[in-house]
Amino acid sequence: MTRRGRPRSERSAIAVIVPIKLHLYPGEDDDLIAFFDGIPSGLRAAAVKRALREGATMGPSDQQAEDDILDVLDTLLL
Question: I need a surface site. Which of 3, 44, 58, 71 has the fewest CB within 10 A?
Answer without folding.
Answer: 3
